[in-house]
Each structure stands twice: as structure tokens, then as C-alpha cells.
Amino acid sequence: MSLQTPPRPMDTALESASVRTPAPAKLPVPADPHRGRKAMLWGTATAVIVMLHLLAVAGTDFDPTLLVDGWQGMARFISDAFPPNLDWEEVIKPGLEATLVTLWIGLLGTTLSIPSALLLAVLASRTTSPHPVAYQVSRAILSFFRAVPDIVFALIFVTAVGLGPFAGVLALICHNTGVMGKLWAESMEETDQGPQEALSTAGASRLQQIAHGSLPLVIPQFVGLLLYRFDVNVRSSLVLGLVGAGGIGLLINQAIKSFQFDTMLTHIIIVLILIIVVDQASGFVRRKLAV
Amino acid sequence: MEQAALKVQSLAKSFNGRRVLDDVDFEVKRGELVAFLGANGSGKSTTLKCVAGLTEPDAGRIELDGAQLSQLGGRQLQLARSKAAMVFQKIHLVPRRTALDNVCAGALARVSSLASVSPLFFSRELREEAMGCLERVGMADRALDRVGRLSGGQQQRVAVARALCQRASVLLADEPVSALDPNAAEHVMELLAELAHNENLAVAAVLHQPDLALRHADRAIGLMHGRITFDGPVASLNQSVLDTLYSPERNAA
Ligand SMILES: Nc1ncnc2c1ncn2[C@@H]1O[C@H](COP(=O)(O)OP(=O)(O)OP(=O)(O)O)[C@@H](O)[C@H]1O
Ligand SMILES: [Mg+2]
């Protein structure tokens, strides 16, 4: 090997590799005895999915030509909305105040559902439930609260407590109990049961096992899901405003009904900022928790 | 010292019609460390689980500290059972909590339910007892560290401290050192032997390394296919005994 031209490391590596590792020997692949059945299954699945979509297109009057024909209506709507109405006293100030109400609805709707969601989650998780009957019943309750949309709860509560944010809070508590209880129960079922088992051998009661063996393991997941639900609930409380539960949703509804599209646009911009702030804040806390 | 702290008679257990434990008889006295040896699936864990109440045996009598478990029920059974503490291969502590809080949890059986909602309500007395247990296993200086931050060997010692805080007279250890490096394993085995010899506990430990048993245990019990085939001082644990104990594994594989 001459000193002037040392071999480049790459070349030697490649050379020695090709020398030392011959290509693995080849073997014929055995015929797959289930090949015909697999192909049949795939074919049937594809056909079923295509059928379902055709039915859905028919069922929703799905027709893009209508959109093309009606573009002028949309253009008028959008041109009316620009520029947004930035009047402080008339639009922005009430908009910000109402946004705060929306935020409060989302906050209370989330935190006040913690006790009920926690109780139902413990009962509805196979690993912590005291009895199969309690398990089934709490599962059913959770399913019910999850199945009824928050907007339906809001309409029901409006008849009881009248129009306003309070009805919105009650509606969110109900729906969120169902969703968060289910999410929490699932994350509880997925966690390690070892510590709980260890405490059971130490003579701890069922409740003590849960308080010192199961719950402390799932706290990070629970908080993460809680923040996620807060994020979702703030957005839901917007929609609840549309049916009279107060907040910025109500103002948006009023602006549309009175054809003040420029005011509507301002409110929507405020909402957009709120959503981004809540999303970022809850994302930030969740990242901190994950570490 | 005559009376055994743990006495098991004709213990039997089947899973799905397959006999896993068959007429298992043994005793563990205070002051001795007994090693359970046997091939994978020979029934060592199941034996300990039956004693700890994690598995319900089909038949047999278990006597803990003079109390017949089969004659008790409810709260009484729970209290009698808490006389046996268990240490696991996978340690099973709560990683997010401090060593001290984990050790305190060993005493839950005698803490009133109101005071046991959160570690915040553990009494000062209990905390001081737990500190004593941590001191005993050489972990007092890490009492306020989260368990997740400790090494495997340190965690296992904290788990032993939790068992001590339970005030148990029998310590059941299912492969307590299988996940530890040789040095940490040696430390934990020394600790278990000390607890048997100095604190007068009855210690039963499932071990997968016969040399650990030879060095630290007083007596060995060999299980094969759910039956006890050897029970004697470790001094009589020669190569031929070990060969028969571990041969079924090769035959079955
Ligand atoms: N919950 C269970 N359901 C069904 N079979 C079980 C169950 N627990 C244990 N077994 C069976 O019982 C037998 C004995 O298991 P056990 O865990 O007691 O063995 P072991 O001696 O501890 O083995 P290892 O050294 O692998 O830990 C095994 O064949 C196992 O498959
Ligand atoms: Mg085992």
C-alpha cells in the first residue's frame, strides 16, 4: 500500500463487504393454500365498501354541480363579510366578553364533570370494577351520556333553567362525563395491574388498592385526556351558543340572522384566536406532562 | 422457633383441568430462608400465589402465623393474609411516587379508610415507621426520591421495605433477583438472608440460579410438575438433584 494514495475508507468497506457476505441462497416460496379465500375476502370487502359509499351519495343528495351553479351566493356572502367590522364598542368588546363566557362554559363543563367521570370510570374499568353488575351498569350509563349529543342536553336544560350559559355548562357536564369516563376507563384497563395486585397481597381494601395502586399510575394519561376534552369542550360551547346557551356562539348566530356578515367575520376571527390559544396552551401542558 | 410461620398441606390447583400443583406440603419456619427451585412451569409461582391470596387453591390447608386461612373470611382473612408479604420479580411499585409513600402503602391494611385516600394523610407515626424500614434495607437516604428514578436493585430493596412496613412474619419472594445484575442480586439476597436470620422472618424465595440458593438459603424445596421432589438443607443439594430438577425442561422442549 503506497503512502501517497491511501485507500478511501468507503472503498475498502464496500470491497470487504462484498467479499465477506455472499448473497443468501434462494428457495422457492411455498404456495399459499388460502390464496383463493384471501382474494375472495378482499373482493367482497371492496364491493361492500363501494356499495356503502354509493348509498351514502344517494342519501345525502350529493351533487357538486349545485355548488358550481350557486357560487354567486357564496361570493356575495363573503364579499359582504369583508372587511370585518372592527368597531370596538359595538363589535369587538361584546365579542371578547362573550368569548370569555364561552371559555368559562368550556372550563366548568370540563372540571365539574371530573367527579362523575372518575366514579364511572373506576366502576366501568374491568381492572377496578367491584362487581360485574356495577361494570355493566356504569358502562350503560357512560354509553347513554356519550350517545346523547351535548346540543340535545342543552335544549333540554334550556327548558329547565332558561336560555343562557348555565344551560350550556349543564349540557357539557353530562356529555363530557360520558366521553371522559369512557376514555379514562380504557386507559385504566391498559395500565399495569402489578402495583394493585401487590397492595392486595398486603391486605389493602379494594378502594385503597385503587387509590394507591391504580390511580397514581394513570394520572398523567388522565390529565392529558382532561386537557384534550377541555379543548374539545370550548369548541362545543361555541356551538351550544347557537342554540341559546350564551357566549360568542350566540353573537355569531345573531349576526347571521340580521345579515351583519362583517360583524360575524370579526367574531369568527376572535373565536379562531381563542381556539388557537386553548389548543396551544393545552398542548404545552400535555408536552410538559409527558416528560 | 418450633412452630412454623407458614405451613402448607396437600395444596392442589388445576388450570383448565391440568394439574399444576399436586399434593404440595411444606413448612417455612421463622429464621430461615427457603429457596424454591424448579424448571419453568413447575408451579413455583402458583404455590406462592396461593399463599398470598392471588390464586384460589382447589384444595389444601394454609396456616399463616397459626391462623388457618380456610376457616376465615372477609376482613379477618384479609388481616391474616397480611401476615405474608410478597415481593415480585417486576417489583410492582408506583414509579411516580416517592420511595417513602410506596413503603407506607404496605401498611394500608391497618390504616383507617378515611386516612388512606392519599399519601398526604399518612400519619407521622406511619411515615417514621416507613423510614425505619427504608433504613433497614439501606435506602433511607433516597426516601424522598421517586421510585422511577432508582435502579432496579434499589427498587427491589424499596419493595422489601414495603413488605417490612406490612409487619409480615412471612416474606414470599417470586424471583426477586431475576431482573437484577449479579451485584445487585447478591445484595438483595444478602438482605433477605439477614431478614430471616436477624429479624426472625420466615422467607420463601423462588430462585432460578441454584448457586444463589447454595450461597444464601438454609433449605431448598424442589418442585417438578407440581410436586415436591426435594426438601432439605442446601448442603445436600448436589448436582444429581439439580440435574433431575431441571431435566424435564429439556424433555418437554
Ligand atoms: N392463570 C393461569 N391460567 C392458566 N394456567 C396457568 C395460570 N397460571 C399458571 N398457569 C400454568 O401453571 C403452570 C405453573 O405455572 P407457574 O407460574 O406456577 O410456574 P413457575 O414454576 O413459576 O414457572 P416459571 O419458572 O416460568 O416462573 C404452568 O404450566 C402455567 O402455564
Ligand atoms: Mg414463576
In brief:
Chain A: It is a multi-pass membrane protein. Chain A: Residues 1-30 are annotated as: Disordered. The complex is a heterodimer of chains A (291) and B (253). Chain A is mainly alpha-helical and 291 residues long.
Description:
Chain A: It holds the Pfam family BPD_transp_1. Chain A: It is a multi-pass membrane protein. Chain A: It comes from Glutamicibacter protophormiae (Brevibacterium protophormiae). Chain A: Its main location: membrane. Chain A: Keywords: Cell membrane, Membrane, Transmembrane, Transmembrane helix, Transport. Chain B: It comes from Glutamicibacter protophormiae (Brevibacterium protophormiae). The complex is a heterodimer of chains A (about 290) and B (about 250). Chain A has about 290 residues and is mostly helical. Chain A has one domain (about 85-290): MetI-like (MetI-like fold). Chain A has 13 helices and no strands. Chain A has helices at about 10-20, 35-60, 65-70, 70-80, 90-110, 115-125, 130-145, 150-160, 165-190, 195-200, 205-240, 250-255, 260-290. The longest helix of chain A has about 35 residues, at about 205-240. The mean pLDDT of chain A is about 85. By secondary structure, chain B is of the alpha/beta class. Chain B has 2 domains: about 1-85 and about 170-255, Rossmann fold; about 90-165, no CATH class. Helix content of chain B is about 35%, strand content about 25%. Chain B has 8 helices and 10 strands. Chain B has a 6-stranded mixed β-sheet with strand order 6-7-8-3-9-10, with helices on both faces. The longest helix of chain B has 17 residues, at about 180-200. The chains are: A mainly alpha (about 290), B alpha/beta (about 250). At the A-B interface, α10 and α11 of A face α2, β6 and α5 of B. The complex binds adenosine-5'-triphosphate and magnesium ion. Magnesium ion binds next to α1 of chain B.
Ends distance of chain A: 53 Å
- State the order of secondary-structure elements of chain A, H for helix, E for strand: HHHHHHHHHHHHH
The number of distinct structural domains of chain A comes to 1
Query: Helix tally of chain B?
Result: 8
What composes the largest sheet of chain A? none
- Any ligands, ions or cofactors bound here, and which? adenosine-5'-triphosphate, magnesium ion
Could you tell me the CATH topology label of the largest domain in chain B: Rossmann fold
**N-to-C order of helices and strands of chain B:** EEEHEEHEHHHEHEHEEH
Largest interface: A-B, 21 and 34 residues
Number of helices of chain A: 13
- What Rg of chain B do the Cα atoms give? 18 Å
CATH topology of chain A: MetI-like fold
Considering DSSP H and I runs of 4 or more, what fraction of the residues of chain A is helical? over 70%
Low-confidence stretches of chain A: none
Taken from the alpha-carbon principal axes, the silhouette of chain B is globular
The structural class of chain A is mainly alpha
**DSSP helix fraction of chain B:** 25-40%
Q: How much is the average pLDDT of chain A?
A: 87
Strand order within the widest beta sheet of chain B: 6-7-8-3-9-10
InterPro entries (chain B): AAA+_ATPase, ABC_transporter-like_ATP-bd, ABC_transporter-like_CS, ABC_transpr_PhnC, MetN_ABC_transporter-like, P-loop_NTPase
Protein name (chain B): Phosphonate transport system ATP-binding protein
Pfam families (chain B): ABC_tran
Domain ABC transporter (chain B): 6-250
